[in-house]
Write a structure and sequence with these properties.
Helix content is about 25%, strand content about 35%. By secondary structure, the chain is α+β, with helices and mostly antiparallel strands. The strands form two sheets. It has a seven-stranded mixed beta sheet with strand order 1-2-3-7-6-5-4, with helices on both faces. Strands 11-10-9-8-12 form a five-stranded antiparallel beta sheet. Strand 1, helix 1 and strand 2 form a beta-alpha-beta unit. Helix 2 crosses helix 4 and helix 2 packs across helix 5.
C-alpha cells in the first residue's frame, strides 16, 4: 500500500483520477486528505467533512478477471468491509443503506463513491472514495447524519480508524472473485438497512408507496416487494427510502 497524504484538496477521487491519467500509479495507492473542499458522493451529491474530525480518502484498486457486469461486487465488498471495521470499534447497530451508505442505528456515518474504468468487457481498475464521520459533534441542517463519536461516546484516533478500515477493504478486494458472489451478496443483504420491514419509498415522480426491501439483484438493483405482492427492481436514484 502506497499512501499519499495531502493537507487540502477539492476531492480525493478527482485528484487520484488525474494522477492516474498523468503518471503510472501503483495498485493500492491511497490518497488521504486532512481537508476535502469539494467532496463528491454518489450521483453528484456532495460529501461534507470537517477538517481534523473526519476521514476522507480514495484508493486505486486494479482487477484482473472482474467483468463489467459484476461491478456491484466491488460496492458490496467495500461497504461490508467498512461496516465490519466499525463493528471492531464497537460502533452500535451498523448497517448498509442501499447502495452503500454506512449507518449506525438510523444515522449516516459513512459514504462511498466508486468510479470504475473498463477495458473491453473487464474492469481495469476502480477509484474508491470513502468518507467517515469520526469525531464531529454537530451537523448543521443534516438531521440524519452522525459520527462515530456521537454514536459511541468515544473520541477516536483518526489514524487508527483509517488503518483499521483500509486494511479491511484491501483484504476483501484482494480476494474478490466471481466464485464468492453469492456468499458476498448474502452477507451484504443481511446488512441492508430496513430489509424485511415495511418502509415508505418515493419514486422519481415524487409519488410515495409502501414496500418491503427483499434484497438486491445480481447487478445491484434494489428489490422491493410492493403492496400488490410483486417485486419491483430499482436502479440508483430511481427510488428514495423515506426514514
Amino acid at each position: 500500500m502506497n499512501i499519499i497524504k495531502l493537507n487540502a484538496i477539492d476531492s480525493t477521487n478527482s485528484y487520484l483520477k488525474q494522477l492516474v491519467r498523468e503518471t503510472k500509479v501503483l495498485d493500492e495507492t491511497v490518497v488521504i486528505a486532512e481537508s476535502q473542499l469539494k467532496g463528491r458522493g454518489q450521483m453528484g451529491n456532495k460529501w461534507q467533512s470537517e477538517t481534523g474530525q473526519s476521514l476522507t480518502f480514495s484508493m486505486l484498486k486494479c482487477f484482473q478477471n472482474l467483468k463489467g457486469d459484476e461491478q456491484f461486487m466491488i460496492s458490496m465488498a467495500v461497504s461490508l468491509s467498512i461496516a465490519e471495521a466499525l463493528d471492531a470499534l464497537n460502533i452500535p447497530n451498523t448497517s448498509i443503506k442501499w447502495p452503500n451508505d454506512i449507518l449506525s442505528d438510523n444515522k449516516k456515518i459513512g459514504g462511498i463513491l466508486i468510479e470504475n474504468v473498463l477495458e473491453g468487457s473487464n474492469i481495469k481498475y476502480a477509484i474508491i472514495g470513502i468518507g467517515i464521520n469520526v469525531n464531529e459533534s454537530s451537523f448543521n441542517n443534516l438531521p440524519q447524519a452522525s459520527s462515530l463519536k456521537l454514536q459511541s461516546g468515544i473520541t477516536f484516533n483518526l489514524e487508527e480508524v483509517f488503518h483499521n478500515t483500509i486494511n479491511k477493504v484491501l483484504k476483501k478486494l484482494q480476494n474478490i472473485s466471481t466464485k464468492e458472489f453469492l456468499s458476498l451478496k448474502n452477507r451484504y443483504e443481511n446488512r441492508l438497512f430496513r430489509k424485511g420491514r415495511i418502509s415508505v419509498f418515493e419514486n422519481l415522480e415524487g409519488d410515495r408507496f409502501n414496500g418491503i426491501i427483499k434484497g438486491v439483484s445480481n447487478i445491484g438493483e434494489l428489490v422491493v416487494e410492493t403492496e400488490n405482492g410483486s417485486n419491483q427492481y430499482f436502479q440508483m436514484k430511481q427510488v428514495k427510502l423515506i426514514y
